[in-house]
Amino acid sequence: MLCVMQAHVTRALRHPGDVIQPLPALVAGFHTSRQEDAHEFLLFTLHAMQKACLCGHKQPGAHSKDPTLMRQIFGGCWRSQIKCLHCCGLSDTFDPYLDIMLDITAAPSVQHALEHLVKPEWLEGENAYQCGVCQKMRPACKTLTLQKAPKVLMLVLKWFLDLTGEKIAEHVHYPECLDMQPYMSQQGRGPLVYTLYAVLVHAGVSCHSGHYYCYVKAGNGQWYKMDDAKVVACDIACVLSQRAYVSIRVT
Prior knowledge:
- This protein is of the alpha+beta class.
- It has a domain at 76-250: Cathepsin B, Chain A (Alpha-Beta Complex), CATH 3.90.70.10.
- The protein has helices at residues 2-14, 38-53, 69-74, 110-117, 236-240, and strands at 76-84, 90-97, 100-103, 121-123, 129-131, 136-138, 140-148, 152-158, 177-179, 193-203, 211-217, 223-227, 230-234, 244-250.
- The strands form three sheets. Strands 3, 8, 9, 10, 11, 12, 13 and 14 form an eight-stranded mixed β-sheet that branches.
- A hairpin with a 4-residue loop joins strand 5 (129-131) and strand 6 (136-138).
- It starts with a helix and ends with a strand.
- Keywords: Hydrolase, Protease, Thiol protease, Ubl conjugation pathway.
- Residues 1-251 form the USP domain.
- It catalyses: Thiol-dependent hydrolysis of ester, thioester, amide, peptide and isopeptide bonds formed by the C-terminal Gly of ubiquitin (a 76-residue protein attached to proteins as an intracellular targeting signal).
- This is ubiquitinyl hydrolase 1.
């Protein structure tokens, strides 16, 4: 799959301005005659390249160092921690991720959505926690934080409603520079700033139809809107005014 992606990018660079038909291996499982999701395609591609990298290797655990290129670039790790409010015992669970999904139902900005994601959850009453130390059901506090941050951060805004697939109408603000340190497990360190590098936009009223285009920053800092065969220069103000579906950031 890595070779397939390299061949696809090479073809695109050799034929600037042309719409390049993806190679069959890149679109396996997708249908040309119906609407497909760009985020799903992105994850499919990353997982396929991840699988190719793992050929001959064991699947790494949450704490082990992942030898694959995809995890080294996009991979991070969540820490889910439950604290018993009676004995103060802690229980940690770690889960790897390639992207972060953000609920924007009631969030005016990406920062608000991140704050909601890591907001402590109180476990009490019928939802109390079975403490391994107390050996009893106890009230507890559950928190989700970033144990390990990736080199390249992918934030996915959940624009589409679960039941109907309709798109949320409100605008969600996102900054050019985003400090992720407030959402890390280890606090008290310096800022962890990610700078916007690319934005994927969905034009349409639901997940069942529409069109995708993107904004990408070149090496010289110039932003470009890429819409099929049409590529035009733009500025950061134009980029930040979009309703981003997927944003890609680098440190």
